[in-house]
Request: fold
Amino acid sequence: MFDALAERLESAWKTLRGQDKITENNIQEALREVRRALLEADVNLQVAKDFIENVRQRAIGAEVIAGVRPDQQFIKIVYDALVEVMGESHSPLAHVEPPPTIILMAGLQGTGKTTATAKLALHLRKEGRSTLLVATDVYRPAAIDQLMTLGKQIGVPVFEMGTEVSPVEIARQGVAKAKELGVDTVIIDTAGRLQIDAEMMAELAAIKEGVQPHETLLVVDAMTGQEAANLTRAFHEQVGITGAILTKLDGDTRGGAALSVRQVSGQPIKFIGVGEKVEALQPFYPDRLASRILG
Ligand code: GDP
Reply:
């Protein structure tokens, strides 16, 4: 397990060897290696620093267990801390009675938000939950078309009102429609911008205020790397999220964005996107990603 990290710690662990306690002095080098590994995995610098501090505190004073190599013990401490920071188990989606459960999708343009909306609907259907998708991106007719196409593809109805009605109104009417149809969950896709801007945040906040969703999911492109932390902070402070979906983990990123998202917002990553197809959505398991981040 963690061959890459173990290899990195090769020289560091010489200082751990023969010790009966892990001390400040003998883990300096090892901590530096972990920090390097995190940065290479695209974890935000500040997030990595905070994490290292957490590990330092756990490690110092730990008794070296007889028969366990101290470097292996140290790796276990790092791994456990990472899993814990990312949330110990898979966090399920809200499911309320009476229906509908309302899910608001947020995120920058191009992150995979619209695709994730359809993926989520398909996932819920497999759990026996019916959905209605709502298209509120009135700035890009192509985005509405995209959602309609995806809806058709997976056999899920899409509610839209064109581009002349305000997104808040479309969202409200979408929820009313969901009640009328008796569907279990309504998922509201929203407009994204290429960068965070005040107008987008205000609009999202207004939609949130208007429909009082049970989940506000931030869609984050795992390739965003270091920026994932700032992005999450902005959305969490200005809109408030209850979880995230990390997309494009089928790419070659090691997924450090997950740690940033979790540490900055305190909210769990609920799903990961692992491809362009609508089936390519998986529940997020912190232990699997911890292994990937540590290499
Ligand atoms: P939006 O602007 O945030 O709604 O983004 P889209 O849903 O339109 O997705 C942007 C692009 O990313 C499209 O080409 C998608 O096929 C692609 N995409 C979305 N999710 C994933 C994923 O998990 N993996 C990969 N490789 N591509 C994805």
